[in-house]
Automatic annotation (TrEMBL):
GO terms for cellular component: dendrite. It comes from the Eukaryota. Residues 430-453 are annotated as: Disordered. This is Neurochondrin homolog. The lineage of its organism: Eukaryota, Metazoa, Ecdysozoa, Arthropoda, Hexapoda. InterPro entries: ARM-like, ARM-type_fold, Neurochondrin. Belongs to the neurochondrin family. GO terms for biological process: neuron projection development; regulation of neuronal synaptic plasticity. The gene is LOC106747438. Gene3D superfamilies: Leucine-rich Repeat Variant.
Amino acid sequence: MSVPEGVTRCLAILKAVDTDSEKFAALFMVTKLVDGKDCTPAAKRMLFEAIGAKFLKRLLVSDSVPVDCPPQVYKSVALSILTAFCGEPELASHPDMVGHIPALLEIVSQADEDAADDMLIIVSEAYTCLQSIAQYPPGQKALLEQQAIPKMCDIYAEKSFQTDEALNILVTLVGRFGPEAWHPSDTAPFHAILHKVTLDFETDHTERKFQLCGILQALLQSCRKDVISTSAKEESWPLSIHKGLSDILGSKISKNQRDPALKLASVTMDLLGAEWAMSDKEKPKILLLLLIQLASIEVRMQLEGKQLKAVLTNADLVTACFAILEISLGYIVTDQLDLDQKEKQSLYTALKGAFAAVIGLLNAVSKMKTLTNMEEKIFVCAVVRVLAAWLAQETTAMRPQVYAVLPYVLTVANDTFYAHRNRKLAEKAKAGAKAAGKSDEGTSSGEPVVSGDPMSENDILRLLLPALCYLAVEEDARKILLKHKQDDVLFECLSYHWTIVHYKKPPVPRSERLKVLQDGNRTEELDLSVLEEMKDSRTAMVSICNVLMNITVLEAKLVEESPTFVSLLKFIFNNLPELKQIPENLVLHGHLAVLGLLLLKQQAKRVKKNDFSICRYIQATIRFLWDAYIIDEGNDPTELVVAISYKEHWMELMELWFLGMQTMAGVLQVIPWLSQFTLESGWAEEIIETLKKVKVGGLQPNVKSAFEDLLCHLVKANDGVASVLKKRGALTVCRNHRMMELGKHLFGD
């Protein structure tokens, strides 16, 4: 490797000098050499190392300068040197260059537009160095450790000189580190920077407004969603974004201006929900409806008649539009959006057009060879995900087209479920091994298991479950589900989510058992993330139960013979009694209980009297049905009301309870010996005792029918029931509530 003669000479001088003054004089020669054409990266490195980091650091921090010299002369020269070198990637990430970060941050933190010109030049050069250093991992890591992010936030929010440079460095760092860039609990720096940037965004009407879209998108994407989504409610910046976007999207703009606005709207909705788009008190619906329209149009423009590869060129924009549609659909389903007929029609037309394009693309992709390109696979997952959101809300449109792509949709969804499950189980196994002290030294860092498969990050099947509830009712769709063996997958899915809902803490390592005993076995609260996961899995299990109930009712013959449904019933027998009796589990308890009854009725021939698990299951099921209605002791002791514990969830439980009562009656008809167990539980007697207290005519007709039908079937199934009910006062109940049918069974005509 040949070194230019000038560089060799300069290196010799730098090595020969004895004092800082002599070295300082030699620096002027260095700056000329570095800018020369002959100075290779290797030569620059040699010069940089010859100067020495300690010497440059002394120049940067020294305030004492020779008489008649400008006060900032040392800093100025040092920064000229650093600026000359930091443009070289190898030197920008050099440990010596990275080591200057504290001094550089100190300089930019003191920037003031009223300062002398030479100081402003120094600040400008310090920013140049920081921006170069921030491009590479070593510098990024050091900047994060040196608290550069809160410092840049502070500079942008409080200063007025070269704040855009601070913002650019900030965006670079948050783009690299994501949520890890921000403090886990101190949200002040994030809100401060958002407040300032969004204020600029709201009030600026130049081209900069569109540049700020991208900056805001990067900042919002990087935030810690859990803490920011909550704390943002107290801040003004969400409204500033709303106003800024309303301004942009309500104007005549080009595609280059609209695209970043849609991306910003998408990430804001993802963080703050669809409610954010409704935050204009005077015209709450305008922005949300506009976003749905624009996103729908964009989806059509990007997808219609195009091949997957062509669509992928704008994947970021398309997935942003998907997010807008998915979040909006989730909000529409809640019936909180009050629309007039014209708005409804306009919305329906826009969405139908968008999802016709989505289905068209999926149809084309389903006929292609199996995708191997990861970018394509991830994008197709996004397409299936947004379709799932629409299918959960739209239950009649384009059925032939939906059925045509349904097998492919199921394949994609199932693949992601298995990948996601495998990743989660691997993480859990590692955590368990570590807790038990079995983790080997090579993997004891406590880091989560990182799956090499990006497909494992999202469980699309989980998101498809609400749509499957509707599809299972449609005959053509149900045939496809069963042909695809989706019932098998759903059973696996149910079993997997059960492991999360029925969470058990890992065993205490032997080394910590004494401490636990000394603490009196004090139970610790579960992590918030674990509780959230449990909540989501409960919801998933409820949805799966609904799908399987629909199949059970509509495919009786299949359910009677299917090994999957036989195993499913055993699963419910074994696990329902183990479900913790806590309020959060009530809805799930009801769904598992009633699904079990439906299956039990279909598979009555398989049930054996000596199967103890059925007794425990029936006991748990009776408990669910029994506890729903109580006498209102507090207000009116003659009125039957829904129990307080059920009231909160009664919209979900009401139909389930009536179905459970009806099916329980049907089960007693086909498995009469269960009547003895029901009688021994005391439930039948308690029904009579309760109904005796209810005033004449005080029973709702459907509640009366449910109880009467159950008691009639109980009497028919077991000769000993009638006498027990009579002793309890069944005659009074029959008279008071005009239970003619029960009266006939108990007392004859």
